[in-house]
Structures are given as C-alpha cells and as structure tokens.
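Researcher: Dear colleague, please comment on this protein.
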Amino acid sequence: MPDVSVERLAWEDPVIGTIALPRGVMTLRYGFGSGLSTRPGDAPGRIWAIGDRGPNIKVRDLIDTYGVDHLAHLLDIPGAKIMPRPDVGPTLAELRVEDDAVVLVRMLPLTDASGHPLSGLANPGCEDLLAEPVFDLSGALIPADPHGLDTEGLVALSDGGFWVGDEFGPSLVRLDRDGRVKARLLPGASGVQVNSGAVLPAIAAKRQLNRGFEALTISADERWIYLAFQSPLAHPDEDAHKQARHVRLWRLDAATGTVTTQYIYPLDPPESFARDCALGAFKRSDIKVSELLWLGPDTLLVLERGSATTKIYRCVLDTDTEVVAEHLKVTTRPTLEELSAADDAPVPVLTKTLLFTSDDFPEVTADLEGMALLSPTELLLVSDNDFGVMGAETQFWRVRLDRLLID
C-alpha cells in the first residue's frame, strides 16, 4: 500500500432551517456528500457535488433523539422514513477548492423538463420493486412520486450536463447544465412510468431497498458509463442479498444506455472493517460500494465502506473477468447473488489493490461517500451529513499518495 497523508479542509454547511421538536431543535443543513465529480476542461480545484433525496430520518432515531413519541405507531412499518421538509429535494452544487478550504460557489436544485423542482419522495412500489413508505412529522403518509429521485453518483460532462445515479428506480438520469432532467433510464420492470427513451435491464429492479445506483463514473472520451450497485441485489430474495459477497458492476454505452459488460466486485470480509466492528455487530450486508472513479482504460478506483471504515481500491477490468450476459436476465438460476454466497464462487471475480483505509487514520470521519481526483496524486473525499438530522456536518478530506494514481 502506498504512503498516504490526510488533511481536513475547511467547510461550512449552508443551513436550511430549524424545526422545534419535543426534545430539542433539529437544524437542517444542505449536504453535498453523496457524489463528487470534476469536469473535463474545468480549472483545477473546480468540483461538482450532489446531495441525496433531502432530509429524512428513521422513525426510531426521531423518537429516541427528539422525543417525537406520537410517531411510535410507525415503528412496526418496515422501512418507514420521516421527511421533516419534503419541499427540500435533490440539489447540485458547484464547489471550489482553495488552499485548505472548500468554498460553495452556487447551488442548482434539480428540476423536471419544465423547470419545476424535483422531489426526493420515493417512487411507487410494485411487485418487482421495493419502495419505502414515507411520512411527515404529523405521521401522515406522503404520496409516492414517480418522478422523485434519491440522487447519489455524479458525473459532470464536457457539454456542461451531468449523469446522476438514483437509488429509487434505480435509474440513470441525464441532466442539462441547469440541472433539468433530459432523460431517465429505468429498469424495464420497475413499474415507474417516466418517458426515458431507453430502459435498463429489468434485473436492476431487484436492488435491495435503498441500495440502488450510488457509484458512477465515465471514461475520458465519455463513451462508457461505469456504475455499481451499492450492495448485492436481493435476487431472488433478501436472503440472497444478505449472504452474497459480491456487487454487480456494469459498463454501459453512454449513447444508448445499453449494458455491454457485467463484472462482479468482491466485498471485503466484515471483520476487516475494524472501526465498524469496534462499534458493535457488523454484517456483510452492512458493506456498500459508494463511489467509482475512472483512472484510465479499464482501471477504476472503488470506494468500499461500512460506516466508520472506508477503503479505496484500485481495480482493473479485463476480458477474463467479464460475466456472461446470461446473468443479466432475471430468469437465470442460480442467480449471481446465490453463487456469490459460496467461498469459491464459480464466476470470474475482479481483483483489487488496496490504496487507502480510514482504519489507519482515526481522525477521518465516518460516512465518506463522494470521491474526486484533484491531481494525479490527490483525492478529495466527502462525508454525507444526512442533512444534519442527527447533528452531523459535512467533512471534506484531501488524501495525498506518494505515487501516481494515473499511469
């Protein structure tokens, strides 16, 4: 592993507002820690960032931390979330790294083609797609929104537009330079009716709840999109998700949205996430892939994490590690996830080389999700503050390595 140094950069989250609750005040802050990207041709230090769906909190956390006991009846609803400000939706930000600080230049709320702000409300569920039930602070059910996005991965394009990865659909969303949706690519069986002009393989709808597309990057010529699911699919069921040891990684033709190649990325054993294990029980299903970064032909950086422990791997894609196209079909049995559960999974697996682990740097915060290349030897990492619902603030970290990341 290379020699590494880390430095926290100064940053202040913009405040959205406050909410008085029985046991204190919730201060909501914008968060831009879900994805980072640089744009070809931009000046050094210019960074694009994106936050996720908007402020949301688990029912148990809202009761235990803020004393909102009148919502106790929602504890028995699987996956229930509270959105204290459903009017705050996904937002892009232009940032600038200046010496030892990150500066906010401007924010761009995402909008539909007509310019109306997009919500971060969950899409309607169906037989093939799990969806979260969402409630407001009074306990009233908030209707699902087929256009809602839980934005995570981000790619800034040379024409000024963007690609965004969404966990709800899961979907790929093409934005123009003003953050307006131009197209949304959804799984063929998602049940979400949005005119996208293209569809993704139906198997994408088998993503585990809230574990869709979070990691996204693109080749230098912008011909190929690379994306990874956050976790193994729940295919054919949730038990397969919990037992699987690998995550699907796709290469897509950016012009057509067609998946051309599938790989499987091996997750580390749970016991190797030292800081997470020190906090209590830590399972294989707690491990996530949160970011990809294109370094050169067939070479990616992969950000793999628990909560407290974050690792960065260099990963080389080659023809020997391609998975047969049969495993893009929903009907194929056994599924990749079922095969993945075995110690010696009988499918080709990507190899990876460790470059960084936050277990070696206890000062580095938890919940690192975004990653961008500042220079051939420098990375910028950012944490997800969850809009401050539990008091967290965004942290930016510059990671310097003693060797070139780009060959």
Q: What stands out?
A: The chain is about 5% helix and 35% strand.
